[in-house]
Amino acid sequence: MTERIVVVGAALLDGGRLLAARRSAPPDLAGRWELPGGKVEAGETPEAALVRELREELGVETEALERIPGEWPLRPPYVLQVWTARLRPGSGDPKPLQDHDELRWLTAPEVWDVPWLDQDVPAVREASARLDARAR
User: Fold this and answer.
1) Higher pLDDT, 108 or 131
2) Structural domains for the chain
3) What is the DSSP string of the chain?
4) Of the four, 11, 32, 84, 85, which is 20 to 30 A from 46 by CA?
């Protein structure tokens, strides 16, 4: 069995909104939306990878909160794990710095207005349930 490589995704929540990022690369994913994140490097915890990836991809300072239960297969050997996260006080607004050409904050009723990548849909469903709970 090959080694699994964990990709962390951030359900970045802010004021009852979830951040969605539109892929600009690679071509087969361009134009579809995802939860931002990236690969966990050797010796790194998933939470530390999430904070690092969001700093590199979006230029924001964040804090990982809780892992959303489950993991979702990507292209082998990758699996997606998702954490809820929040912006740290004093962090700037997210900007699409790497692999994305647009970001959008979505409220609970807007979450399904964008075409999510298939592998992100179950995690987005879980994240949006948390969004709904916070909105009540």
Assistant:
1) 108
2) 5-135 (3.90.79.10)
3) -PPPEEEEEEEEEETTEEEEEEE--STTTTT-EE--EEEPPTT--HHHHHHHHHHHHH---EEEEEEEEEEEE-STTEEEEEEEEEEPTT-------SSEEEEEEEEGGGGGGS-B-GGGHHHHHHHHHHHHHHH-
4) 32
